[in-house]
Amino acid sequence: MNELEAKYLIAAGRKPARVLRRLLQEISWAGYLAHPRDTSEIVDEYFDTPDWRLCKAGWSYRLRATEDGLRITLKQLAEQRSNIFEREEIEQHLFAPLAEPGAPPPGAVAEALTGMLGSNLQLRPLFSQRNCRQIYHLSHPDHPHAHVELALDRVRVETDPPMSYGEIEFELHEGPVNALQDLTGVMEQQHDLIPARVSKFQRGLFAAGLEPPSSEVWRSDSGDIYGKWLEVALPHLNQLRKQLKQQEPFAWEAVHVEGVHQLRVTTRRIRAALRAFANVLPKKAAKRLNADIQWLTKTLGPVRDLDVQLENLQNYRATLPDAQGPALNRYQLHLEQKRRAAHAKLLHALASNRFTELDEHFDRMLAKATRRAATDWGISTQQAANEQVLPLLEDVLRKGNAITASSPAAKLHKLRIQIKRLRYQLEFLVTSYGKPVRQTLKALSKLQNSLGAFQDANVALDHLQAYCQHTNLNRIERRTFKLLMAKEREDASVRRRQYAKRWSRFEKRALQLQTIL
């Protein structure tokens, strides 16, 4: 059967019960009557074959346990650019627990599984989640024959650490499509709700750090240092474009902190690739794309920064005595309010024409670069390494050796940016140069982590100081924030000493690499 749903995520920091009360009031003003039904506890476990054949075929496979019994479901996966989900669903009730997830009794799901994958299926568990579902049936005089179900889902994905979120779903069981579309018009006015872009299954995969393997769009033999630099560029750029499209919905929803973080990392890698391959890419198209990516990176930055501060807050609570924990409540509300405002700006950017044009600009640049690659055009990998990467490596060595115990934090931050650029550049040379580049990258990554942790401690200290300067704190809060600021200063000092040790290890590898590039 076909399933038609409109789905909305409850904004982080908002209480689901309060959001539901306001929502029921809003839809009643629009003429809807909400008839409470029941609240149920649902446990879902998802499976796939070891080689991800179900996902690759466009389906998810779920075993659901409720108070009413067990059932298995195959649900179609689809790319979404709106919060209206229309998918095919195949469901089968079970009268006894399964001995093996891949061996269901005869029925609709068993038949579909056999048709897609053959008999004797070997399935492995992916993740499980728990859901407390509160259900209402909706009616409206304009749609007397429509059957629309409203559900509030409080979901906990059993990952490490677990991920929790609230979601509102409207499912059309019967009646015209405009009965659901009219509701989405009402929902556009709800600022505490974010149109969903991915399914619960996709969110669970993301939280569990699972992803089906994929083949790259462009393949070439880039192991030859005398091969064309442009042929190294194309597989990387194609893969980065694919990652950008895959990660954008998770940044849009921002349920998991990695959603915004991974998209931001991808934008930085794209900018690094555009710099690295600038001398072989079509200049005008690459310059236009770089401006778009820079705009997106800046929009992602404030959300990511506040995600980090909210994670720090949880660490603060774990280290403070219980009596001092409540002293952070106002600070948490302050951070959550700023984060919602930053995320709202991000949503506006991702829904804008400029983001749509970004993808078009990426496509045009790749098309032009692919046509160039078909000709005997551009420099070799060896020439690019000598002319571009080697000067950057020498610049990092020069700036790193100039760092002393009295160097300001801003100087270390600039070095970190240069190190990150060098790391991205070297990653493009791994296939061509092999072990020397891999060893340098390993040392470089540890060095970057130390500088990153040093920068994070300084940024956290800045946030704490700014909050204290602009907030009238009570005695317990002042003592608590003084303790936290001392902790961040000590952490920054530890990370700075760690950097000094790791620099010497990186320098040794870098000097060896200099002789090869």
Write up this protein:
By secondary structure, the chain is of the alpha+beta class. Strand 6 (124-139) and strand 7 form a beta hairpin. It has an 8-stranded antiparallel barrel, surrounded by 4 helices. Residues 215-221 have low confidence and may be disordered. The chain is globular. It has helices spanning 16-29, 53-57, 108-117, 178-187, 200-208, 229-253, 257-276, 283-319, 329-350, 353-373, 381-401, 409-427, 430-433, 435-469, 475-514, and strands at residues 2-10, 33-48, 59-66, 69-76, 84-94, 124-139, 147-157, 163-174, 193-195. Helix 6 (229-253) packs antiparallel against helix 7, helix 6 (229-253) packs antiparallel against helix 10 and helix 8 (283-319) packs across helix 10 (353-373). It is built from 15 helices and 9 strands.
Features:
single chain, alpha+beta, 56% helix, 18% strand
Q: Could you give the order of strands across the largest sheet?
A: 1-5-4-3-2-6-7-8
Structural class: alpha+beta
Oligomer: single chain
- Report the order of strands and helices: EHEHEEEHEEEHEHHHHHHHHHHH
